[in-house]
Each structure stands twice: as C-alpha cells, then as structure tokens.
C-alpha cells in the first residue's frame, strides 16, 4: 500500500515539478532578457550622447574656422587698404611708411643691446665671471627678439623671393 501511495504521490509531485519547471525557466529567461534590453538601451543612450557631443564639437570647430577666415579676410583687407592709401598719398609718404619698421627694429635692437652691454660691463667691473654674465644676458626674451628679427629681415625675405 505504501508503494501505491508513494508512487502516486511521488508521481504527482514529480509531474507538478516538471510542469512548473518550464514556467520557471521562462520567467528567468524573461528576467534576463529584460536586463539585457535595459543594458542595451543604456549603451544606446551613451552612444547617442557621444554622437551629440561629437556633433557639437564639429559645429564649434566649423564656427571657429569661420571666425578665423573672417579675421584673416579683415587683416588682408586692412593691409590692402593701407597699401592703397600709401600709394594714393604719394612717393615720400610711401618711403616714410616703408621706413617705419626698419627704424623701429634698429631702435629696439640698439636699446636692448645697449642695456645688455651696460649690464655686462657693470658685472665685469664687479668681478662676475664672463660665462655667468653671458648666461644671464641670454634670456629667452632676448633670444626670441633676436631670432624673430633675424627671421623677419633675412629668412622671410629670402623665402619670399623664392616664392616659398
């Protein structure tokens, strides 16, 4: 009797478990599927945010390029107008205008060099070693001034003549 009872009860229990198992598996599968969809949605939102940031950066770069083009056009127009004004004013005005940059260059180099020589002379009189005085005199500002002047007056003109 026990066998009959246990066989029927066990069969019912196993039957119920095996009937519920697919439903439990479906429920777990839907849960995993929802988590997967949520993760994919988050990734998609992040991707769209990155695309938006990239588009904003492109728009900003285009705007900056347009501003730079406008500034360069204004600069070129100012130079052209200045040249036309000098030509219209006459020969001596053109000569005076052409002499301004060289005169200012000579003046700045003379004043700066005079100050350097004066400091070097005073340092030498005070007994400072010549190497230390030279290192002190050759500041980045003086090097920039000297190299900029040499580049403008020699290298720029040489390259201009060659069409480079």
Strand fraction equals under 5%
Principal-axes geometry comes out as elongated
Taking the alpha carbons of the first and last residues, their distance comes to 111 Å
| Structural class by secondary-structure content | mainly alpha
**Radius of gyration, whole Å:** 42 Å
Number of helices: 4
Give the % helix: over 70%
Poorly predicted ranges (pLDDT <50, ≥5 residues)? none
Overall domain count: 2
Q: Please report the total strand number as a whole number.
A: 0
Q: Largest sheet at a glance?
A: none
- The H/E string reads HHHH
Give the overall average pLDDT: 82
Give a short overview.
By secondary structure, the chain is mostly helical. The protein has four helices and no strands.
Core attributes:
164 residues; mainly alpha; 2 domains; elongated
Would you write up a description of this structure?
The chain folds into 2 domains: 1-89; 91-164. The model has no long low-confidence stretch (mean pLDDT 82). The protein contains 4 helices and no strands. It is 93% helix and 0% strand. 0% of the residues are buried. α2 (91-125) runs antiparallel to α3 (130-137). It is elongated and about 125 Å long. By secondary structure, the chain is mostly helical. The protein starts with a helix and ends with a helix.
